[in-house]
Write a structure and sequence with these properties.
Alkaline_phosphatase_core_sf, metal ion binding, Alkaline_phosphatase, alpha/beta, 2 domains, magnesium, binds zinc ion, 482 residues, ten-stranded mixed beta sheet, 16 helices, Alkaline Phosphatase, subunit A, phosphoprotein
Length: 482
């Protein structure tokens, strides 16, 4: 009886605060609800599709990245949205490959661009291939959504902060059992003899009907011959940059940010930009790499060139660096690249309309970053776990950072980690400690978020296989204009 009385009293108190239509809750949530109540699914055919990939950007990277981006702008890390968090629709993508619970980036992107899961390490083929073998690759090859879109008259492009022959960008144009076959120097003789080709060659040599119109990223060496003026990686003596330039009167090649900015989009239909020998450097290190364009600048130029096509365009934009720096347990650079991705999304949203452009953003897989409890609002997310200005202590009495990794090269996981000070923990070079010591962090296998806006974006909802995103974009290509 006394328990019953207590619960009645508690219920009464709750009711007292929200009786008779009195507003309760925050104004921001009320505004959001009002917007949601007015929203109707846009079932029109989108003219353009932009697929953003935050490589390795799990929910943990989004949350910590949002706090970091806000704090970098003087905010408290709470009242802030990354650009894609403003999109009206979202869902969860299951990223496993055909043979592993935890995918690599090759299957990760291939599932999205072909609608079929393959083995880890393979791209643009079904699961009937063997890694490191050319056998069966031709038979297993499946057209990518980008090649399909080209055949339907759209222009197509791919932009990345990694090398342009890395797994994710290759998901637009590549067909291989082995993601490491990036130049012919990587290709075993038997594979070459059996008719397999390297990814740089596939990008440049694809038939015009399915060839990418814009490709911006790194990996210059995979396109240049070994014995040339600039010693490249290629053993076949081919200069693929020259091949690209000769393929069309409106083809151009650029190698730095200044030249990219100077590209006259009106006079350029086919743009190749290779801004580093391998992957592009982090913007954190911009002082040392003054003339490398950022992801937003590459995205803008790609859209300028592609949007001239009257039938529309399809573009993939990848922030590869989130993954690259997570592999090194360097959360500072990884989360800086979440911000870079957000900037690129903002640029794309500004240059297009949500009336005619479907934008989908997702990750190909997650990483084992964790934001652990014990960080007071306002304390730097990159720093020590702390509240009231006092660092928290672990069971050994040591201080510890708020961000840690499950696996990787960051030292001091488990009971091993040294006493940390705030200056060390917030240094851009700091590697957050990892529980399992590895030279390179392993990917993580939890579902990743998907965000969408524009025509057909309402189809991105619920929990689904990553391959479902192919179906959504394919539908968007095929739906009849109203
Ligand atoms: Zn990775």
């Amino acid at each position: 009886m006394r328990i019953w009385m207590k619960s009645v009293l508690a219920f009464g108190c709750m009711m007292a605060a929200s009786v008779a239509g009195e507003p309760q809750g925050t104004a921001a949530d009320a505004a959001r609800l009002a917007t949601a109540l007015k929203r109707v699914p846009d079932t029109h055919k989108p003219k353009n599709i932009i697929l953003f990939i935050g490589d390795g950007m799990g929910i943990n990277s989004v949350t910590a990245g949002r706090i970091f981006a806000s704090q970098q702008r003087g905010g408290d890390g709470i009242a802030y949205d990354l650009a894609f968090e403003k999109f009206p629709y979202s869902g969860f993508s299951r990223t496993h490959s055909a043979d592993q619970y935890v995918t690599d980036s090759a299957n990760g992107i291939s599932a999205i661009t072909t609608g079929v899961k393959t083995i880890n390490g393979a791209i643009g083929v079904d699961a009937n291939v063997k890694s490191e073998s050319c056998a069966g690759v031709a038979k297993a090859s499946i057209p990518t959504l980008f090649e399909d879109a080209k055949k339907r008259g759209l222009a197509a492009g791919v932009v990345t902060t990694s090398g342009i022959t890395d797994a994710t960008p290759a998901g637009a144009y590549g067909h291989t059992s082995t993601r490491g076959w990036r130049s012919d120097a990587d290709l075993p003789k038997e594979a070459a003899a059996a008719g397999c080709t390297d990814l740089a060659w596939q990008l440049v040599d694809a038939p015009a009907a399915i060839r990418m119109d814009v490709a911006l990223g790194g990996d210059r060496l995979d396109f240049l011959p070994a014995g040339g003026e600039v010693a490249g990686a290629r053993q076949d003596g081919r200069n693929l940059i020259e091949t690209w330039k000769k393929q069309s009167a409106k083809a151009a090649y650029v190698a730095n940010a200044e030249d990219l900015a100077a590209v006259d989009a009106a006079k350029t239909d086919h743009l190749l930009g290779l801004f580093a020998d391998g992957d592009l450097p982090s913007p954190v290190d911009k002082d040392y790499h003054k003339n490398v364009p950022d992801l937003a600048a590459m995205t803008r130029k790609a859209i300028e060139v592609l949007k001239k096509n009257k039938n529309g365009f399809i573009l993939m934009v990848e922030s590869a660096s989130i993954d690259k720096w997570h592999h090194r347990n360097n959360a500072y650079r990884a989360l800086t690249d979440v911000d870079e991705l957000s900037n690129a999304v903002a640029a794309a949203a500004e240059m297009t309309s949500d009336k005619d452009t479907l934008i989908i953003l997702t990750a190909d897989h997650s990483h084992g970053l964790t934001l652990s409890g014990g960080l007071a609002i306002g304390a730097p997310v990159m720093g020590l776990a702390q509240s009231d200005g006092q660092p928290k202590r672990d069971r050994q009495g040591n201080t510890y950072p708020a961000l840690t990794y499950a696996t990787g090269p960051g030292e001091g996981g488990g009971d091993e980690h040294p006493m940390l000070d705030q200056k060390t923990a917030t240094d851009p070079a700091f590697k957050q400690p990892a529980l399992v010591p590895m030279n390179s962090a392993a990917h993580a296998g939890e579902d990743v978020p998907v965000y969408a806006q524009g025509p057909q974006a309402y189809l991105v909802s619920g929990s689904f296989e990553s391959t479902y995103l192919y179906q959504v974009m394919r539908h968007a290509l095929e739906v009849k204009p109203k």
